[in-house]
Amino acid sequence: MNTLLFVYNANSGKLNALLDVGHKLFSPSTYQCNLCALTFDTFNENKQWKQFREESNINIQFYHIDEFEKAYSNETFKYPVVLKQDENGLNVFLSKAELNTIDSLEVLIEKI
Question: What is the pLDDT of residues 48-94, one digit of tens each?
Fold first, then answer.
């Protein structure tokens, strides 16, 4: 079965999450993860995104950079990125450049 892997341009952990929230609050225009900005509000997962994710038939996995690179040690990409995993391995589904052009959650959902 094909899987979409969403890799955020952030590392895991409480301290990193706190730093991300601060960055979103005080300097949103310089925030480095458009995927995070589209799928999360300041403190929680966007409700529309959560509903899409839960109602979708798509197999979806989410990673922070450190988690992804630990699980897929031979793979590196420009983050954020959405990857498609199938019998041929990992392929870019939505690149960082593509994600950075998406200006609304609705557009992201359409592309998926």
Answer: 999 999 999 999 999 989 999 999 877 779 999 999 999 988 999 99
What single letter denotes the amino acid at residue 41? D
What is the tally of structural domains in the chain? 1
Q: Name the 3-class secondary structure at 5.
A: strand
For residue 7 the two structure tokens come to 């890799």
Residue ranges making up the domain that contains 39: 3-111
Tokens of 34: 């458009």
Q: How far apart are CA 9 and CA 51, in angstroms?
A: 23
What pLDDT digit, counting tens, does each position of 35-57 carry? 878 887 766 788 999 999 999 99
DSSP 62-104: EE-HHHHHHHTTT---PSSEEEEEETTEEEEEE-HHHHHH--S
Distance CA 16, CA 36 (A): 13
Query: What pTM was estimated for this model as a whole?
Result: 0.77
